[in-house]
Amino acid sequence: MHLITIGDTNVKTQKTTFSPEFRLEKTQSVVDNRYTHKGAAKAMGVGYSTIINWVKQLREEYKNFNEAKQAVISNIMNYYNQTWHIRTTQD
User: Is residue 56 part of a domain?
Assistant: First the structure.
């Protein structure tokens, strides 16, 4: 609950929350389809800064995923190179 003061009156408001699925779907449309942050925020009915934050989070997750994927690929390649080297030296 948030408390907003309007004149002499205090008004309680609830912060809108969005499911992770909603956030992912909407931010992927911004990142993958190159929609503008402003247009996406307006179309979704969320604040501009909210979209900015969601997109930053998604891009960071993409970056972390790609770095992890590269590490796995590198480890696999090293394993196969070592295995190949052992086999060729034994023959």
Answer: yes
